[in-house]
Design a protein that fits this description.
Blueprint lengths: L10 E3 L6 E9 L5 H8 L5 E4 L9 H4 L4 H6 L8 E5 L5 E5 L12 E2 L4 H6 L6 H15 L8 H12 L5 E4 L6 E4 L1 E2 L22 E5 L2 E10 L3 E10 L5 E14 L2 H11 L2 E2 L1 H6 L6 E2 L5 E3 L3 E7 L12 E4 L3 E11 L17 E11 L6 E4 L11 E3 L6 H18 L9 E2 L5 E2 L14 H10 L2 E2 L25 E3 L14 H21 L1
Parallel strand pairs: 1-10, 2-3, 2-13, 3-10, 7-8, 13-26, 14-15
Antiparallel strand pairs: 4-5, 6-9, 8-18, 11-12, 12-13, 16-21, 17-20, 17-25, 18-19, 19-20, 21-22, 23-24
Length: 520
Amino acid sequence: MHRDSSYLQSVYNATESPSEEVYDYIVVGGGTAGCPLATTLSANYSVLLLERGGVAFNNPNVLLEENLIANLLQVDDIDSPAQAFTSEDGVLNARGRVLGGGSMINFGVYSRADEDFYNESGIDWNMSIVKSAYEWVEEAIVTETDQINSWQTSVKRALLQSGIRPDNGFTLDHLQGTKIFGSTFDRTGRRHGAVELLNKAKKKNLRVVVHATVERVVFASNTSLGLSAIGVIYRDTNGNSHVARIREKGEIILSAGTLGSPQLLLMSGVGPRSYLSSLNIPIVYEQPFIGQFMTDNPRSLISITPPFPLDDIGSRVAGITKSFYIEAVSGMVPFSSPVSPILFPDPYPPLNLTVLSIYEKLSRPLSTGFLRLASPTNASLTPIVHFNYYNDTRDLSQCANAMRAIGKMLRTQIMQQYKSMDQHGQRYFKFVGQALPQNQFDDEAMGEFCRKTLSTFYHYHGGCLAQKVVNSHLKVTGINALRVVDGSTFVVSPGTNPQATLMMFGRHIGVKILEERNAN
């Protein structure tokens, strides 16, 4: 797959921005949804795309699959593409801080949403546009192949042998059973993230500004139109402030992510009245559900070290059931990283080694939490979030069932080759971190395992839910010219992994906006 970097012609540092500027559309957040959205709108209108992070064009940790674990673990407090944070639940997590967003720090999994996602979302989907939007993304950045490495082949066979059937082969669609999915890593192991969708933009209409931290949305009110968003204020790395406004019939579109979009609305005075008043934030519009219904799909896993050299990397296979999904990854893990517990929570040794992991994701966790501001004025601080994992004990039961399924996989014939041998000739899995309980029918023991190995899949969502904060067209209720287009609007996480849906989402909404304006 050819690596096109023509989008760089449209990229500027915020320090180069004028103090005031005007566009038809302003998209806040150059991430997985924001890049395809800005590109689509640029076909007919001027677009400003604001991204708080930088560009990772030549960063080998971001671009190469062999470094995907290092990319996620090697973080700092300043400008690393992955920014670590810890929820109030005590679970380490990460968010994108780079042009391309989460698509530049994830494991590259590309798989479309499940049918239930569309039905439950509260969003007005045009399924014809959905299909063409997926294809628009896929032709640009997705690699489709049924050729997988030895570890992924073993996982696929173990899934089938343990009863997660049928064998669906390679498919981008969400189908129950076992499948090989697409990847945004090509056959040479090079990443093609959402940032490359900017190559499709009409360059003269698009300006991408990086290292631009948006601090608040600016509003105006009049008797005929009511309350409207008219612009944003953002700050560059020198601390200078810039104002960008929209033209008549234009819009501000927040694509700052599950943490960033509700944060920006709250800082702009849109949110629960009592909460905003407690922080002395002037109330622009009362909206009680902003920052509510925050959900993170909990993950538990087992990890083993193989008894033979294995340089397999990446993830290409999924086992799909109604209540949980199973995936696997392999790679060299730098355990010296301060955030390595994200992958291997308890315990982890201080050395580098090849690790093979199998992990589960609950498809529909019922536990939800909330988000609060870390500061009413400093947008660079990650909000405080509490996901409330396993508050609903039905989630714990589903985790136990998923881990039983993984235990069944470990007992299949294909997995026996990954056992080591002790001095007495006994074969065993050399676990990194927690081993599964010996009695996997013991609900209490399995629940304790799930709690002890609790980590994240990085698929958190909510905070600006459709039908609560935004309407079915993603417009913020009660405010003109303001939408939210990102995972914060999702009631559930789509399919096994959300990145395909988020990229489609940006394209889908962009096409619908163009159609709306053409009709008018």
